[in-house]
Predict the 3D structure of the following.
Amino acid sequence: MKPIIRKKIHSKTPQKTDKVRLNKYIAATGLCSRREADALITRGEISVNDVVITELGAKISAKDIVKHKGKAIKNQNLVYLLLNKPKNTVTSRQESPHEHSVLDLIKKATDEQVSPVGQLDKQTTGVMLLTNDTALIEQLTDPGYDKLKIYQVTLNKDLVNSDFKKILEGVKLEDGFAKANELSYVDKEDLKQIGIEISNGRNQIVRRIFSELGYKIEKLDRVYYAGLTKKGLQRGHWRHLKKTEVANLKMGAYK
């Protein structure tokens, strides 16, 4: 009987690579989403080491220099902050350089340069998102995207039933009609306290709706924005978004 000879099997260990897909790298810089990055690549707007890349699925290494229209883009640490904005705080420091800004409140949160997503006027309080993800900022500020927002409003007088109905049906403003998705009295004993749900993203839309009907808003608090709430977050405090919250925002799962 011949002896059984067992052949030694040499298994190849997969080599580790630090290469990443080009579209993933571009999206990580905050320039745009992966899908939009594919479009940039296809249009020939992306170069790697000064060579134009049009192949989808191309990979790059850490030492490669990626440019968009000749301008270098670098990977950055994307930051997403949720702030419960207090009163008497401006959103834009450029418009009011000497005023207390929301950026002053998040100084200790990150060394990255973040920007507010959208605007809340000086007297409005509540949920505000700040990030350095430019693709997400563009997505959330695009009028074509429905972003559900809920505000608690305190008026200078009772909201009468006829005006209640008008807000649900539509109020004519100088830049077109605007209406609420939902409207309710927060307290049936106090008809000045109103809850309004709206998707319209036009500037100061809630204040303008009530102003058109002869009301003055004494307090305006945003309690919900694109799936985010201020639950557990004290006024003037901030927190980092959870990964699931960021994913929902990017997918457009705003409700």
